[in-house]
Fold each of these.
Amino acid sequence: MSRLIVVSNRTPGKGPAAGGLAVALRKTLAEREGFWFGWSGDLVETPSSEARFQDIDGLSVAQIDLTRDDHHAYYAGFSNSILWPSFHLRLDLATIEAHWYEGYRSVNVQFARALLPLLRPDDVIWVHDYHLIPLATELRNLGARNRIGFYLHIPFPTPDALYAIPHHQELMRDLSRYDLVGMQANRDVSAFTEFSEHQSPSSLSGSPLKSVDFSRTEVAAFPIGSDPDAFARLSVSAAATKMVKRMERSLHGQNLILGVDRLDYSKGLPQRVEAYEKLLANDGRFRRQVHLLQVAPPSRDTIKEYQETSDTLDAICGRVMGRFAEPDWQPLTYVKRAYGQPSLAGLYRLARVGLVTPLRDGMNLVAHEYVGSQNPADPGVLVLSRFAGAAEIFEDAVLVNPFDTDETGEALRMALDMPLDERIARWQSLMAAARRHNVDDWSRSFIDRLAPSTSGDGTSTRDILYLASVA
């Protein structure tokens, strides 16, 4: 069996894997042999020309170092100040500096040059996320002929947003150098297809750029998930039960509404708290009967737009507290730090409402984790943004437009008033969907599609299909 080479911006660290994706990829690597390649996290004066291997908890990891200037242009600059806001349709938050693209491509070239000597001809390479879109091009330019797949963990932009990204034509040509491109949701595949079928000419003077040829690139949706049965077990573990008991003592019988997110402008946190404010304002019977807990650890807090989101959220939480708090009741708790998975699983299980309302999201695994953690005899209700990839999977969630805070406030009322039989029926449907789209099957389905299956003469099935299509 061919080796699997996983490539991502950062390599995993020591200790337990932080999320379901890292767990799944570790398991996949263990089954196939191979290694994980990426940035070490170290910033140095002279960039690495060769990767260094180390064993991290039984996982073979190859790492390179980056210079501070290259990392800033590649990561904070082009990746997170241009691609991230544009892919999330927040062009108003994109900051464009021409030299960032040079740094972005330079780091991808560095990745390719360090990775190439480590490859065998039959290795299968799986590249992850928007930081490394050009990697296949750079590997092909160096002579690599391996099967290379790419998975985008964030939404794919609409064509109009894509056209606003500097060098978007080159980036799309980079994607055409992959054998398989995976997206989170069908809406992302549709946006990709719309661009590929209706490419616009160059906006620069002179000869227009040639259209990008995607005829040899397969693009498909591979919705990522979690491990719902593992969360079901975790939600009744000793650590989870300890958290539940602590919260129950502080709630005094109130219904818990729970949000868990990184502090990111794409998560719609100010709109979420405003919707909760409208619930309390419009229906006085919920005062002293509900409590909102929002867990939001900081994310990329050196970037101005993230600091502004934090300030806005601070202000609106203060407004709700000032408007509704009583000497013996607080309407909400806002926590700016992360919790371990056992504690979160306990909170998920306790929460009568899981409030997952990003303005735009690739998938959103919090929705999956919340569903997996519920008590089958007395489950809570998932209130979910229509603009999360998870909405394509969880049709029986209460779906909302997060920009419409009146609608979200009404959805909260409906969820809190929902009778037990309806809650159970909705949850059973959601749990079945979470099991169908679990993270192990996600990684297996992608690799099975990417890995070559050969005929007797050594020609891959995909090559036969391609030759037939052009004959």
Amino acid sequence: MTRLSGSGDDSASGPGADPVALALEIADAVESLTDLWTVAAQGAGLRLSPHQLRALRVLESEPGLNLTALAERMEMGLPTASRLCDRLEAAGLLERVVHPRKRREVQLRLTGHGRQMLDEVALRRAHALAAVLAGMDSPAREALQRGLPGFLAARGRDAPGVDSAGH
């Protein structure tokens, strides 16, 4: 877990709670959500690593990237990105296509199977999250729903200590 203080009571309470204490609680929730996300994704028809899933998501949002651009988006070296794409291509999730105007450039595109896998993972994750949300009482669920837009709006701005890539 993320608890950094050993005081025993570092939970945020009430409106206007200490942002650091609240951040620690949220960090614990994010760890739990990450575990839920990973387990749900691993139940899909084809087991994909987090890097493989992320590469597919990048290519879904930016079809036709070349290998160099994908490596940059994923902040990894070119050889690592190449091996990642080799595995995705071997699994039938990705295809390499010659750029229509730049014959020396190869574009990376999701296959129909790659799109299906992303849809399956998204659906499995939504069901897993829905099960957790269903276990919350209605006021807690509503409070979470009310707070999310403010969180996302603040995250969209440059937060101190966080670059635009989320680091």
Amino acid sequence: MRSKSDKKKPLVPSLRFPEFREAGAWEIKRLGKVLDITGGGTPSRKNPDFWKGDIPWVSSSDISADSIKEISITKFITPEAIKKSATKLIPKNSILLVSRVGVGKLAITRKPICTSQDFTNLTHHQYNVLFLAYYLRSISHVFESFNQGMAIKGFTKENVESLSLALPDVKSDEQQKIAHCLSSLDEVIGLESHKLDALKNLKKGLMQQLFPQDVA
């Protein structure tokens, strides 16, 4: 992100893959110019029929703080619920960015989905969706700085639209390279986490068996 005083200044990452070190600077672009930004909403809870459909609907608690690929879908709504509320059907390969109650969490949706008003959704972009999602995750502190409001802190659609980021050429393979690198690391972290959980469970089981459990 750049301030108004230097938003036209060329920018390159401090770490770059060898094949892109001579590729030139990234270009400063305003997010509102390179993607569509939409909000969400919650169908009335007073109408139970709205919640008997097959269209997935998520709230901020359904997004993991640790993964950009995990979305816990437990609620489903009807087309009528969409028509009669502020929620919208967000296309697949969009980024669901939490703008209230868990500010800065985000996830990529791999299927059309609806969200609550706690989201600012980034759609119809030309960039590699993994690259863009990791980029936004890396600047989560910026979204936290937008926090405003008395009861529920958060940021607005306008905050995101006005945000300027340095982006590589949309046709460049650099964004794919970055996305693949970080995604591969996430896969390794996931595998190691499962191993760690298994070891913890093994230790717990051994402790229960290696010591008498009857205490006078």
